[in-house]
Amino acid sequence: MTIAKAAEFEVRLARTQADLHAAQRLRYDVFVTELGAGGPLVDHDNRREVDQYDDFVDHLLLIDRKTQQTVGVYRLIRRDMADRAGGFYSENEYDLTALKSSGREILELGRSCLHPSYRGGIAMHQLWAGLASYVAEHGIEILFGVASFHGTQAEALAQPLSLLHHSYLAPPDLRVTALPEACQEMNLIPADILNRRQAMVQMPSLIKAYLRLGGCVGEGAFIDHDFNTTDVLLMLDTARLSERQAKIYSGQQG
């Protein structure tokens, strides 16, 4: 299914094993080569970042129409897919009881990445436009997924983690919590001495983008040593998007 076409890009779901392998190769380049991630199913010989969820889910691809290269991906897991896969990926890091029992239609976003040559331009907005179409088609109400800071030293991330805790915690009825085995407290600096500007400078672009759209986070960060990251659980309630925010999310303006 082709979701959107523009002058430079096509956005569609993976249709074939070749499509899936292209997504996994991009993930390998970004997560393994660039960021130092690992994992038991990573295929180093073929340079593919693989895990046990890939065969049960949808993979949204951003394709450069000139080169036919896959330059951006999102992995999408709806509730029925999670049931077949044995759960959501995020359940390896967070207790999702509050979210799963909300009675609302949910979609997990994961493995989001762009080829380095396509960052900082319109590529991410094109991928978001495709995601917005997918969300509308399936009646999704809440988007969620882990988003990552590079590195596992919490003290180096004290400013942004504290800002998320003080200003962006999810409401109690949706507040998922990090699993205790690798939970990192985010309340590391008191709110009255927090340097908000420094915190936002350290915040990854994807997290900042979802915060601007009204996103919120679960309680506690999760230290993922396999991926060399400190993760937070981001959530976005699509019903709370303003008209302007909805345009940004759907890729209609920068």
Description:
It is a single chain. The chain has eight helices and twelve strands. Strands 1, 2, 3, 4, 6, 7, 9, 10, 11 and 12 form a ten-stranded mixed β-sheet that branches. Strands 5-8 form a two-stranded antiparallel ribbon. By secondary structure, it is an alpha+beta fold. It starts with a strand and ends in a 5-residue tail after the last helix. Helices cover 30% and strands 25% of the residues.
**Per DSSP, what share of the residues sits in E-state strands of 2 or more residues?**
25-35%
Overall average residue pLDDT: 91
The structural class is alpha+beta
Low-confidence residue ranges: none
Based on CA atoms alone, the radius of gyration comes out at 17 Å
Helix content: 25-40%
Number of strands: 12
Distance between the termini: 26 Å
SS element count, helices? 8
Shape: globular
Q: What's the topology here?
A:
Elements: E1 2-5, E2 9-13, H1 17-34, E3 58-64, E4 70-78, H2 79-85, E5 94-95, H3 97-100, E6 106-114, H4 123-138, E7 142-150, H5 158-167, E8 177-178, E9 183-184, H6 196-202, H7 205-212, E10 216-217, E11 221-224, E12 229-237, H8 243-249
Parallel strand pairs: 6-7
Antiparallel strand pairs: 1-2, 2-3, 3-4, 4-6, 5-8, 7-12, 9-11, 10-12, 11-12
Helix pairs in contact: 5-6
